[in-house]
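Is this the right way to post structure tokens for a design question? Let me know if I should format differently. Anyway, here goes:
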């Protein structure tokens, strides 16, 4: 699935320092960008994810820059496929996301732009932790089928307006999101997309995610 404008021809490959590692990313900045959205996903997905790239395309058409980056190196991803350890190491993923955020704040093209986070699965928990650590930088968070329960210790400290989007057929995750929503003390909302599963693969489901995310980011970022 491609974005409404197709793959951007001027996408900029970037390397993001994160401790002793370098994370691979793809940055795209439309003309007169009003903010930049950093994508955070769980293991098993990547910056090449068709779902994330579709949402990113919609956001760009709405005037938002996007940075899709892998929070794990290829070697770490290969290990995690076997152990499934790093995908649930939320502090580790949050540190990687924070490194990408700091990189955006130092890059000449993006340093003046307000940052938003779009998180999926355990990446949503990492986004909440990183946002709590950078309250003056992160302007909004959107979670798609996320696991905010894994960020429970920091939820009360999140200052960025937060939107949870969950599929109507994803009952366990709905319950986790409702519990986490109650702990947030900021502008917040939970939207359940009827008939959608965890991956929002049903016709029209991902389009609704993109519409909701765009409205939230345009309002707060």
């Amino acid at each position: 699935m491609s974005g409404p404008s197709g793959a951007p021809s001027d996408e900029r490959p970037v390397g993001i320092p994160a401790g002793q590692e370098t994370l691979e990313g793809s940055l795209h900045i439309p003309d007169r960008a009003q903010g930049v959205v950093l994508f955070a996903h769980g293991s098993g997905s990547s910056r090449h994810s068709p779902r994330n790239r579709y949402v990113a395309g919609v956001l760009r058409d709405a005037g938002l820059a996007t940075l899709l980056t892998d929070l794990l190196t290829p070697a770490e991803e290969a290990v995690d496929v076997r152990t499934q350890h790093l995908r649930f190491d939320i502090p580790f993923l949050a540190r990687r996301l924070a490194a990408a955020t700091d990189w955006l704040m130092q890059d000449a093209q993006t340093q003046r732009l307000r940052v938003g986070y779009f998180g999926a699965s355990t990446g949503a928990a990492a986004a909440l932790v990183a946002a709590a650590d950078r309250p003056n930088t992160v302007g909004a968070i959107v979670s798609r089928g996320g696991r905010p329960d894994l960020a429970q210790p920091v939820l009360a400290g999140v200052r960025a307006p937060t939107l949870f989007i969950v599929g109507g057929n994803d009952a366990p995750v709905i319950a986790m999101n409702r519990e986490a929503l109650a702990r947030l003390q900021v502008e917040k909302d939970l939207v359940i997309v009827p008939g959608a599963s965890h991956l929002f693969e049903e016709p029209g489901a991902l389009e609704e995610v993109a519409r909701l995310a765009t409205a939230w980011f345009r309002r707060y970022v």
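Format looks fine. Someone answered above. Worth noting: Confidence is low (pLDDT under 50) at residues 5-9. Residues 90-106 form the longest helix (17 residues).
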